[in-house]
Every structure is written in C-alpha cells, then in structure tokens.
Specification:
Blueprint lengths: L1 E3 L2 E11 L9 E8 L3 E2 L1 H11 L4 E3 L2 E4 L2 E5 L1 H10 L1 H14 L9 H8 L3
Antiparallel strand pairs: 1-2, 2-3, 3-4, 5-6, 6-7
Length: 117
C-alpha cells in the first residue's frame, strides 16, 4: 500500500500479460496505481530511470546528475513532481534511450533538396 501519513492513497501492482496480439505474451510490469489519479507517472519515471541508470540509487537515496532527489522512492517521486525542469529533462532523456523520439529533418533543408537546389 502507498500511504500519505496514515491514509492509504494507492497500491503497488504487479501484472502479467497472458495474451496479447501486439507483443509477446507473458511479460510482467510493476507500477503504482493511485486511487485519485490512476497510474503514477512520477513513479514510472523514477522506476524506468533507475533501470536505465539515469537516476542513481545508493541505499535508500536517489540522485540525478549529482543532485539528491530524496531518501526513499516516495521522496524521489515528490521531487520529480515538484521540479518540472528535472522531470522534463529526465523524460526526454529516457524517451531517447528507449528509442521513442522521432528524428525530424529541418523544413528548410528538406525543401531545398526537393527543389534540386
């Protein structure tokens, strides 16, 4: 259970995909479900960044580019939620590492090539 003080606000969930037409079956995923929001974006971002070694985890401490995010996963999530610049930079780097960013050609260069210039 995920708690804020004494109140339970969500749960850590592990799922196993048994049948799937789009990808191989029997994959597993683990994520936080917050009762008032749905799947926790910050929790997923922290988990993926730790897995890809963008965020360093030393004991209970999480740090990004030498800056401590907090002690414990919940404090790291809170830091990511409150600091939009760090969140956006981390998201962009993670998407790049996972190959989810399309490379775009500059419009002027593409137009010049199509005109034979």
């Amino acid at each position: 259970a995920i708690k804020e003080g004494e109140q339970v606000v969500g749960s850590r969930t592990r799922v196993k995909i048994v049948k799937n037409k789009m990808a191989p079956p029997f994959r597993e995923a683990e994520f936080d479900i917050l009762y008032n929001q749905g799947i926790s974006y910050e929790g997923d971002l922290v988990d993926q960044a730790v897995e890809k070694r963008l965020i360093e985890k030393s004991g209970a401490w999480f740090s990004y580019k030498g800056e401590r995010l907090g002690q414990g996963r919940e404090n790291a999530k809170l830091f990511i939620r409150e600091h939009a610049d760090a969140r956006q930079a981390l998201d962009a780097k993670l998407r790049e590492l996972l190959g989810l960013v399309r490379e775009t050609k500059p419009v002027a260069a593409a137009d010049a090539r199509s005109k034979g210039a």
